[in-house]
Amino acid sequence: MKAILFDMDRTLVPMDEEMFIKTYFGGLARKLCPVGVEKDPLIAAIWKATGGMIRNDGNHTNYDIFWNVFAEELKVDAAPFMEASDAFYRQEFYDVKKVTGENPLAAEAIKAAREAADYVVLASQPIFPMAAQLARASFVGLKKEDFDMITAYETECYAKPNPKYYEAICKRLGVEPKDCLMIGNDEKEDMYAASQAGLNCYLVTDHINAREEYPWDGLRGTFKDMIEMLKTLK
Question: Is residue 230 a contact partner of residue 111, using CB atoms and an 8 Å limit?
Answer without folding.
Answer: no
